[in-house]
Amino acid sequence: MMGASVDSFAFLHQFWPDLAELGRKAEQAEGDEPELVAIRLRGLTEAMVVKLFRHLGLPYDPKEAHFDRLVQIENADLLDARLLSKFHAIRKVGNNAAHNRKVTNQQASLLLEDAWSLSSWFCRFMRPDVQWFTPIRKTVGQEPAARASPPDRQPTRPGGQPNVLRFPEERVRRIREHVARAMAEVDPRIRQLRTRITLHEAFTENLSGDQSACLDELQTFLADREQRIFLLKGYAGTGKTFLAKGITEFLSAQGRAFRLAAPTGRAAKIISEKTGREARTAHSQIYNFGDLREYAAGDDEIGSETFKFYAGIASNQDQANTVYIVDEASLLSDAYSESEFFRSGTGYLLHDLISYVGFDHGETDRKIIFVGDPAQLPPVGMSASPALDAAYLREHFGIKAVEYELKEVLRQKADSGVIRNVMPLRDSLSAGSFSSLGFMFDDDVHRLRGDDILPLYMSSRAKSGPMASIVITRSNSEAAGFNRAVRDALFPGREFVVRGDRLIVTANAIVDGTFLANGEFVDVVDVEAAVERRMVTLRQRNEETREVDVIDVPLVFRDIQLAMMSPDGSESVLSTKILDDHLHDGRAGLDAAQQRALYVDFLKRHPDLRKGSDRERISQILRQDPYFNALRVRFGYAVTCHKAQGGEWEHVFVSCPSGQNPRTPDYFRWLYTAMTRSSAKLYLIDPPEVRLKVVGMPEQTTDGSESGKPTINAFRAGIREHVRRAIDGQGIEIDDVAHHQYQEAFYLRRDLDAVRVNISYNGRFAITAIAVPPGGSLNEQLRDLLGPLVGKSAGSATPGVKGSEASAPGVPSRPFLRAFHDRLVPLLEAKEISVADLKEQAWSQRYTFARQAETAVVDIFYDGRDRLTKCMPAAGKRFNIPGGKLLPEVLEILVGEVLP
C-alpha cells in the first residue's frame, strides 16, 4: 500500500474537500487495489467536471452522463485537448474497473499522476486569485520524463467551426485564455497524458473473435506512421458502428484528434447518435462553401449563356495526427459530379477528401478509416464502391490500404428477422451465385400486396411518428406515385405542398450559408400559398440543321420555410424558394433546358450584369439570388433506394422491382441495400421468390424416345454436355443458351471477354456447323475446342457424365448441387422420405425418393450459370405410379419449401 501518510491531493481541501477526500482514498489504494484506484479517480473527475459546468455556466442536467458532459465541453472547445484526454482516460479505465476488468498497478499509478495533474490545473483555473503550491507527486514507478513543451493550447475542434455555445464570442475567448493561463502554470513534465490504454481496453463490452482480430489490425494501423487508410468492412449486423464508437473512445482517451463524417446528412446523424460524438457530412467537412469561386462558359448570344461556380477544398486546420472516420463509405463516389451551375471541389468527392486530408505532406500522421458495407449499392455511375476497394485506392492514389472484413453476425443481431433475411443475399453476393431467392416472414418481416401498403404505412406513421417510416422504390416515377397516395391520405384535397409535408433534397445546395446535400430530408414549417410563374425563352443551335431553335421553358417558384435536423440533433429553420414544378414531377432532376433557363432568367432580372460586367460582382450577386438558387426538392415519403442509402428507419416498406430478372447481382445488391435500411420492421411488397417450377411430363422414350430416336430436349442436353466437356478446365463459363430452329446459341464468357457461338444441326439430330465470330484469343480457342463437334450424331450427343465427374452415390459432385442437396435432405427427413438414388445427368440431377415401398423419380434441371431452374417427374410407370401419394409430397417440398 502507498501508505496513509501520502496525501498528494491535500491542496484541494481548503476549497473542495470532497475532491481532496476522493483523491486521498484513491491514493491509499495504490499498490494493493488498482481497480479501486481507477474507480475512485473516476468519481473524482466526475465531481470535478460538475464543478466546471457550474463555474462556466454550462447547461447542467443532473441526469446527464459523465461522457456526455465531456463531449459537450469538447464540442465547445473550451478546454485544452490534453486536459480532455486525461478526463477521458480516467473515465474509460474507471469504467473498465467497475465492470470487473483488470487494472494493473502501473496503470493505477499513471492514473494517479494524470488525476493529480488535472487537480493542479483545476485549482489554478477555478481560483486564479490564490497562490497555489503543488509539488510534483511522488510516484510508485519512474519519474515522469520532461518533454518538449507543446503549443500553449491544443484545441479540441478545428478552427473556423461555429461556436456551439450560446455564449458571446468574447466570453468564450476569455474562458480559453483562463484555461491556457492555468495550464501554463502546471509543471511541463505533467501536462501530457501519462495513462496509456490499448484499443481493446477502450471496450467495456465483450468482443467476438472476429471483432478482436479486427482491433488487432487497427491497433497496428494507428501506431504505424506509414499506413494511411484502413478499410473497416462488414455486412449488416457484424458490429461496424459498435467498433467505430470504441475507436472514438480510444482516441479521446489517448488525446488524439479525430473527425466523424458520412456522405449524407442522415448518415451523419445516425453515426453521431450511435457514437455520441459530433459528425458532419463529408461535403461540409472538406469544402469551403463560404468562398465560392466562379468559372464561365457559353456563347455570346442572349438566351444561350451559362455560368458555373464551385466551392474550393477547405484548408485543413486539424492536428497533424488527426484520424478521419468516414461511415457509410460505400456511398463515397469518385465519379465526376456537378450540376449545371455548381460543383464541389474538383467534382470528384473521394479525390477531394484524400486531397483535404493531405497525405502528400510527409510530416503529418493523419489517417482515414473508411467504414462500410461492401454488399450495398455502389455510388451512382460506378460499378463498385471505390472507397472500399483496396485495388482502386492503390491504382488511383498510390496508397496501400489495410483492410479487414467483419463476417461474424453478432448474437444479439442474429435474432433479428431482417438480418436472417439479408444473410442469404449477402452470402450470394459473396459467392457470386444468384440461383435462389426466398424470404422468412415473421414478426419483424412481413409480406404485403401493393394494395396493403398505404393503410399499414399510415398506421406505422401514427404509432411511431412521421419520421419513422419510409417507402423505398426502384424508380423516381414509382416514388412519385407512392408520394401522391400518401399525401392524398395525409392532406386530402391539398395538391400542393403544405405545412407538415416532408421533403427530400434532390441536388446539393447552399441555403442561408447552410449546405444541404442531395438526399437530405427537411420538413415544411411554413409555405406561401401563391407561386411565381415565369416563361423563359431559350435559343440553342440545332446540331443537325445548324439553325437556332427557340423554346419556351416555364419556371414556377414558391416561398417556403424548412426545418433541417443537424447531426447533433439540433434543428434549424431555413427560408428559401423552391422550384415548385420539380416538386411534382417524377424525374430524377432538372433537364438541361430548365437549368439554363434559371440563368437566363437571372440575367433578365439583372440587365446591368450583361456581358462586360465584373465577373466577381456577377458571382457575388448570383450566389445570393433566391431564384437562381431555388431549392430542388421532392416529397419524401417514398424515395429511391439510392436516396435512402445511408439512412435508417423503424418501418421500411420495400417495393420490390418487378418485370426484371431477379437472379442478378444488381437485383440482390439493390434488395440487400433496401432491406438493411430497417432498424425494426420490414415490409416487402410483392417480393420475388425464385423457386423450382414443375413442368409437364416429357415424351416417353427409352433414352429419349421409344423408337430409340432422341427427343429435341434430350438432343439439346447432349449438345450442352459436349460443350461443357470441351471447355472444361479452360476458365470458360456458359452464361446462357438460347434455342432456335435447328440451332443452339451458346453465350460463353471468360473474365471480361464474351462470345456467342451458334451450333447448327439437322433433322436427323446431327451437328452440321459451328459458327464462331472472328475476334480475339477466346474466339480462336473456342473455334479449336468446339470444331470437332461437327458431324456428331444424335447417339454421340446423348448426355452422359464423364468418369472423372462421377461422385459417390447420393452425393452431388458440384458445389451448388451439393448445397441444394444439403438443404433438401432435412426437409425430406421431416416427412420420413429418403433419397434412394441420385444420378448425375447432363444439365440435370435424377433423384429417386423413397418412403416405405413407394418411390418417386424426379429430374431437377440447371443452367449454364449453375442455377436450378425446374423439376420434372420422370416419365413412365416404372418411375412414378399414377395416383401415388409420394410424388405430390416431393413436388410440394421442391417447389414450396426448398430454395433452389
Please supply descriptive tags for the structure shown above.
single chain; 900 residues; alpha/beta; Rossmann fold; 5 domains; six-stranded parallel beta sheet; six-stranded antiparallel beta sheet; 25 helices; 22% strand; globular
SSE blueprint and pairings:
Elements (H helix, E strand, L loop, with lengths): L16 H12 L5 H23 L9 H11 L4 H18 L6 H22 L42 H16 L24 H15 L5 E6 L5 H14 L4 E5 L2 H11 L3 E3 H5 E12 L6 E9 L9 E4 L15 E3 L4 H9 L9 E6 L17 H8 L4 E5 L4 H4 L2 H15 L13 E4 L4 H12 L4 E5 L2 H15 L11 E4 L3 E3 L2 E3 L4 E7 L4 E10 L6 E18 L5 E9 H5 L7 H14 L9 H10 L8 E3 L2 E3 H4 L4 E7 L9 H11 L2 E8 L7 E2 L17 H16 L5 E8 L2 E8 L2 E9 L5 E5 L5 H10 L28 H15 L4 E8 L2 E8 L2 E9 L5 E6 L12 H11 L4
Parallel strand pairs: 1-8, 1-9, 2-3, 2-6, 5-7, 6-8, 10-22, 11-20, 11-21, 21-22, 23-31
Antiparallel strand pairs: 4-5, 12-15, 12-19, 13-14, 15-17, 16-17, 17-18, 24-25, 25-26, 26-27, 28-29, 29-30, 30-31
Helix pairs in contact: 1-2, 2-4, 2-5, 3-4, 4-5, 4-8, 5-6, 14-21
CATH 2nd-level architecture of the largest domain: 3-Layer(aba) Sandwich
What is the topology, as strand order, of the major beta sheet? 3-2-6-8-1-9
Helix content: 25-40%
Report mean pLDDT, rounded to a whole number.
85
> Which homologous superfamily in CATH is the superfamily of the largest domain?
P-loop containing nucleotide triphosphate hydrolases
Shape call? globular
Biggest sheet descriptor: 6 strands, parallel
